[in-house]
Design goal:
It contains 5 helices and 6 strands, in the order E-H-H-E-H-E-E-H-E-E-H. It starts with a strand and ends with a helix. The model has no long low-confidence stretch (mean pLDDT 90).
């Protein structure tokens, strides 16, 4: 199978890192587990639509970002088992693109530049044997990808156009095993 895996909110805990930077700058704690709106400026109230990207311009943002538990292990295992892995991500700045590229290169030995897809409209991705793994409610709305896996967060609970909703990478791995063997 061909897997298209999102980075922020799917393999990396983007919201936790964002909340750390916000706390550092404003002294305001935001419980990232309770975020129920995908739009950052609605959760981090001191930021407006333009400022919400300021952390993504910071080269340090992705340096020590936490991965979702076991994401690296299961993605490497899926690759070892013969699945084609592509990382499909949106990047709002050139700096965030370089930082994500570096992050993937450091953590996945199989990673090559050809496996890095920077897309602002991932819902147009289509591969006959494709699996889309993402967290964005907007990506799933019109997606034609045959299999769609949504990593469950409060902000995407009302997404309907998915084959499987899960909360961790063991569940993702087990589901992919169940449909491919």
């Amino acid at each position: 199978m061909t897997l298209f895996i999102d980075v922020d909110g799917t393999i990396c805990n983007f919201l936790s890192q964002y909340a750390k930077f916000y706390m550092r700058d404003f002294g305001i704690h935001v419980n990232w587990n309770e975020i129920s709106d995908y739009n950052l400026e609605k959760n981090f109230l001191k930021l407006n639509k333009i400022d919400k990207y300021k952390y993504l311009r910071n080269s340090e943002f992705y340096k020590d970002i936490e991965f979702m538990p076991k994401a690296i292990d299961y993605i490497n295992l899926l690759h070892k088992e013969g699945h084609k892995i592509y990382f499909s991500t949106s990047c709002v700045t050139y700096e965030s693109m370089l930082a994500k590229f570096d992050l993937l290169q450091r953590n996945f030995k199989f990673f090559e530049i050809e496996k890095f897809l920077v897309l602002n409209r991932k819902n147009y991705l289509y591969v006959k044997d494709g699996i889309l793994i993402d967290d964005s409610p907007y990506v799933f709305e019109n997606s034609k990808m045959p299999i769609k896996i949504c990593l469950d967060w409060k902000y995407n609970r009302n997404v309907q156009n998915v084959n499987f909703r899960n909360s961790d990478w063991l569940e993702i791995y087990t589901y992919i095993q169940s449909i491919t063997y």
